[in-house]
Amino acid sequence: MPGGRLTRLDAHDDGVNAWSMAHIAPPAALVGLIHGYCDYAERTGGFTARRELPHGDGVMIVNLGDPITIVGGDGQILDLGTGEAFVGGIHLRPALSQSNGTQRGVHVFLPLTTLRRLLGLPMHLLLDRVVPLDAVLGVAAWQLGTELVEARSRDERIALLDAALIARIAQTRPIAAIDDHAVALVSRRPDLDLRTVADQVGWSRKHLADRIRDTVGIGPRSFRRVLRFHRVTSIVSAAPDPDWAGLAHDIGYCDQSHLIREFREFAGITPSAFVARLAGAGGGLIEH
Questions:
Q1: CA distances (Å), 272 to each of 26, 34, 149, 252, 260, in order?
Q2: What mean pLDDT is predicted for residues 50-61?
Q3: Residues 149, 154, 160, CA angle at the centre, nearest 5°?
Q4: Distance between CA 144 and CA 154 in Å, rounded?
Q5: What pLDDT, in 10s, does the model give residues 141-171?
Q6: Domains and CATH numbers, the chain
Q7: Segment 129-135 mean pLDDT
Q8: Residues near 31 by Cβ (< 8 Å), separated by ≥ 6?
Q9: CA within 13 Å, CB half, 44
Q10: pTM for the whole thing?
């Protein structure tokens, strides 16, 4: 891996729980296609499961350590051994990740539009689901996992992932520019109502809804709600003592009660329970 791509290193060790997470920028060839990687390792004596909340991106994780279990928002259980990987599309319900207390792996952060391109599947097929990568990409996923397990360093792992993703991208067609434009308007311009978005793209509202569902997995109104929810959880994760009423107003909820209802719908817990379960230092949300 060329030097200079390490953007942040999160490390935590309280004597019971310890983890390190190296955040790495994408190579030039993948800028705009993936957000980057997290090469991580952890040992937790205080908990073995996390609650993973809905957000607006796709997920690809390669397990490089002991077996882990992922429970999708649909309740389906996926067990992953060493060298196995999974992908996840958009979720409207929380998922769970479970380990025996030790984990090691690489997380690829990528937009749903890129996941759509890599898999060649309408993203509504992945709604609330986690799927083994080899079920979609076949032997190529198995080969990549084997090579990553055998890699001798983080740099070597990242170089392998770079090469695998660049090669896969080269084999696929980009999503249509108009679909990409529609997703951008829906996600980045909440000031525009959906009728205006449809008019700007030149589609009917129904066609807009169909195309957004194909590209990100859910309709445009639901997608905006998930993005707003992810924004509020990101803010509270960084500063977990907010003025909830003020935050609800700033983020675009009708009022604090509206924010609480969406926490219960998307996270299955209240905002105060969310704060109480934060592991801190990038450690996610502890599942009791």
A1: 35, 33, 39, 19, 9
A2: 97
A3: 65
A4: 15
A5: 999 999 999 999 999 999 999 999 999 999 9
A6: 6-171 (2.60.120.10), 177-287 (1.10.10.60)
A7: 96
A8: none
A9: 22
A10: 0.95
